[in-house]
Amino acid sequence: MTEKEIKTLMKKYLNGTISDKEETLLEEFDSKLILKNKDTFRNEEDKQRIRHAISKNPKGKHNNSSFSNLAKVAASIVVLFGLGYLFFMIAPINNAKEIPVEEVVLQTEWGQKMNLTLPDGTQVHLNSGTTIKFPKKFSAYSREVKLDGEAFFEVAKNPNKPFIIQTGEVNTMVHGTSFNINNYDDKDRVEVTVATGKVEVSSNEEKVFLTQNDQAIFDRTTKNITKEHVNAADYLYWKKGIINFKDAPLAEALEALERWYGVSFIVKNEKVKRCHITASFNNEILTVVLESIIYAKKGLQFEYIEDNKIMIKGKCTD
């Protein structure tokens, strides 16, 4: 092959446009050349510089199994034209401007829920007061979304493109599974609960792996992640329109009702917030829910101050 033909094939190889026939031809040429030039690199530093440059190439179509072939190509370039030429060919690829991808932002108000399908086929169920952000088209290497609030994900399987949910200081990564994330700003923790499959949850400090019925809890104050075994179904009632309280403090129950019905509560007696409640409500109107709580907890009363503002007063005994 002439020098011009070799340069053309090497450029194609590095930017991922080479055909199978051209690749075979180039690899045969590389093998012969490498055998004749065992001391291709001047020192270990040269070798590491080339490996680093190759690993940053975003356009190559080659997988891990062909990385050694790409290394041989790089070595051939060094033999023929020197290190400078190799970086001359790679630099334009690495420095090419990325075309901005349009971002989609969807939000549910308090009292609303939403089901949607992401560009890759992943199904997402948004709870009330939730915001999700994702690109109109996912990149070739990963699928990344941002979440504030609560959502259940049924991730489309793709072992070559991890699915990553960013929730502030916590990242959740999967390839194809289903799980729930609770990440409301007014809570002191982030909860990731797995229904099926395997999930990786990580922060800047640590990382845990979850399987079915595992839950990771990130403490926003201590920055620690703890892992517990739970019944995932207990955290998924909201998808079916069911509000489920299991020995929950009344303060926590009222917060859930605020999100669910789009109202706000004023509690006259702070001690009432520490009262516990166990109950389940299936698509009931708010008045029915409140009357049930008042019936179960003698001494409590509620009063509508405005259409969306309710006062809780009286005493509560567990």
UniProtKB/TrEMBL annotation:
Bilayer-spanning residue ranges: 70-91
Asked if the keyword Transmembrane belongs to this entry, the reply reads yes
User: A single Pfam family, by name?
Assistant: FecR
Tell me the ranges covered by the Protein FecR C-terminal domain, including all copies.
243-312
Instruction: Name all FecR protein domain ranges.
Output: 106-200
| InterPro entries tied to this protein | FecR, FecR_C, Ferrdict_sens_TM
GO terms assigned for molecular function: sigma factor antagonist activity
Keywords noted in UniProt: Membrane, Transmembrane, Transmembrane helix
Classification via PANTHER family: PERIPLASMIC SIGNAL SENSOR AND SIGMA FACTOR ACTIVATOR FECR-RELATED, PROTEIN FECR
* Name the record gives this protein: Fe2+-dicitrate sensor, membrane component
Lineage, highest ranks first: Bacteria, Pseudomonadati, Bacteroidota, Flavobacteriia, Flavobacteriales
